[in-house]
Specification:
- The protein is an alpha+beta fold.
- Helix content is 56%, strand content 13%.
- A 4-stranded mixed β-sheet has the order 2-1-3-4, sandwiched between helices.
- Strand 1, helix 1 and strand 2 form a beta-alpha-beta unit.
- Helix 2 packs antiparallel against helix 3 and helix 5 packs antiparallel against helix 6.
- The longest helix has 17 residues.
Length: 170
């Protein structure tokens, strides 16, 4: 027991789309942020599938199934690494990635058919639209929205400035 309140980690919401080339580019920054801050920064993948990418919604649902199976980030990173292949192969690629990570690909297939994660994806997308997200990646930290779809230049540094400030306040 402690007399002082314990603050949780700083939250960084990353509005992402798994068929997005810019989101793939952003992975290096996200890895660096996760390495620098560890559990002091809670990097949360939020779904924002774009209409122009026909497999993005299925990929978002599959990523949620990976979360259920304990490998959300590993799965998202693996799919992003193959985002151009996803455009050509669609759902078979999503199942291949699940298999390669040792996940239950049959459960992935069932999840994509029954749509059990649709509400999560829809809710993320609706929340994103409500706060002004129009493209991916978009970061939200400390109430500030940073648009990475236009340029990644300087974004990691800006996220670090905000995270450092927020962590110093606790």
């Amino acid at each position: 027991m402690s007399d002082s309140p314990t603050a949780g980690p700083v939250v960084l919401d990353v509005w992402c789309e798994l068929q997005c080339a810019d989101c793939h580019t952003a992975l290096a920054d996200l890895r660096a942020l996760r390495a620098r801050y560890g559990d002091r920064l809670d990097v949360r993948l939020r779904h924002f599938p774009l209409d122009k990418h026909r497999h993005a919604f299925a990929a978002a649902q599959a990523a949620e199934e990976a979360v259920e199976q304990g490998q959300g980030w590993a799965y998202a990173e693996a799919v992003l690494a193959r985002h151009t292949e996803l455009a050509d192969r669609g759902e078979p690629l999503l199942l291949d990635v699940a298999r390669q990570l040792g996940l239950d690909d049959e459960e992935f297939d069932t999840a994509l058919i029954d749509g059990r994660h649709t509400l999560i994806v829809d809710a993320d997308q609706a929340e994103g639209k409500a706060i002004g997200v129009t493209g991916t990646p978009t970061y939200v930290i400390g109430g500030e929205r940073l648009d990475g779809g236009k340029s990644q230049n300087g974004l990691r540094e800006r996220v670090e400035e905000i995270a450092d400030r927020l962590l110093a306040e606790v």
